[in-house]
From TrEMBL, chains A, B:
GO terms for cellular component: mitochondrion. It comes from Adineta ricciae (Rotifer). It catalyses: 4-maleylacetoacetate = 4-fumarylacetoacetate. This is maleylacetoacetate isomerase. PROSITE patterns: GST_CTER, GST_NTER. Its cofactor is glutathione. Residues 6-87 form the GST N-terminal domain. Pathway: Amino-acid degradation; L-phenylalanine degradation; acetoacetate and fumarate from L-phenylalanine: step 5/6. Belongs to the GST superfamily. Zeta family. Residues 93-213 form the GST C-terminal domain.
Length: 219, 219
């Protein structure tokens, strides 16, 4: 097969934090991929074509190794297990692996699902800002507390991991909802160290092909 | 150290589906443990003592190997990585491992967080039944579709996995909310095969030390 046939394709929306996590992971592993934009505002994830790829009608979907994979954390675990070259996306030590997954899960199941578009629509325009603030703050409070124990330069010690792939998109989201981040000195310092790295810069929403405006992301 | 010192302790609530997942996993791996009940109705998860163990103020928390672990899926991954004897909780094949994690994640991030006590309180008494029904149904629709491809006797082929540890508690929850399960023939058939197994029977909410009523769980 030619490279064009085997190159992974990521079904992504520029500001979806779940897509953003997978973009970072692919970049960290130096896996070249093509972006296929799915516009959530236009409900493109609800088409029969997309639902065939992901019955949950969500993004991201990653075409890789001849298969269509859904759900960001399982996608990243699959990438790591099938591409065991460095950099690792999970630490070697089992307890540190646990820490990376635990931080990721606080974000992926404890924050993001409660503030996604779909849920906020059901909450209603009047209440949605308060709702999102509440759940983002409760979740980030917990993450900051966990980082007191786990963090070094990054979320778990001095090695970048799955947890960092989740943290940066969640902080991007928190800013969209105008959450005050001054109470989170550890995570915002980690974010600063991550956001200067090419893998994170390339994955930023403003740098995606479907970003609608002028790029404001700075190197 | 004596066995009494090293025996894991699970901070659990009988009908918490996240606790239920970990109970199943521990039983499948034949790991003997002690239950420490945390009553969510009495908000015992909000005490300073509990928050020191889990800053997200949730259960389960598992004391094992001298550490307190939180978040059900990372706990189960840790158990599997540190106890690599059979039965495996994740298949050997990377794509099947992905499938097991993906089904688990649809439940753990796509359904459960949207119908837990904490969220339903915020939704309010008037709307909470409709809200829970909606999110449980959307999630289970997706799981059933995935199972069309992945399932054998169990969620992924013929081996019990992490996905089965998540499915059974989610169906228990769906029944509590009176969700009609007749549209889910694959998952309910799998559930039936799982619920006759000792590891699943012992983990059932009705068999927990903090279950308040007469046991109705039948072998």
């Amino acid at each position: 097969m030619s490279n064009a046939e085997t190159k992974p394709i990521l079904h992504s929306y520029y500001r979806s934090s779940c897509s953003y996590r997978v973009r970072i992971a692919l970049n960290l592993k130096n896996i070249d991929y093509t972006t296929h934009a799915v516009n959530l505002i236009k409900s493109e994830q609800l088409t029969d074509e997309h639902k065939k790829l992901n019955p949950k009608a969500e993004i991201p979907v990653l075409f890789i190794d001849g298969k269509a994979l859904a759900q960001s954390l399982p996608i990243i675990e699959y990438i790591e297990e099938t591409r065991q070259f460095k950099p690792r996306l999970l630490p070697e030590d089992p307890f540190k692996r646990y820490q990376a997954r635990m931080i990721s899960e606080i974000i992926a199941s404890g924050i993001q699902p409660l503030q996604n578009l779909n849920v906020l629509k059901r909450v209603g325009d009047e209440k949605k800002a308060d709702w999102a603030h509440h759940f983002i703050k409760v979740g980030l409070d917990a993450v900051e507390k966990v980082l007191e124990e786990s963090a070094g330069r990054y979320c778990v010690g001095d090695e970048i991991s799955l947890a960092d792939c989740c943290l940066v998109p969640q902080l991007y989201n928190a800013r969209r909802f105008n959450v005050d981040l001054t109470n989170y000195p550890i995570m915002t310092a980690i974010e600063e160290r991550l956001n200067v790295l090419p893998a994170f810069q390339k994955a930023h929403p403003d740098r995606q092909p479907d970003f609608p405006g002028e790029s404001v992301a700075k190197a």
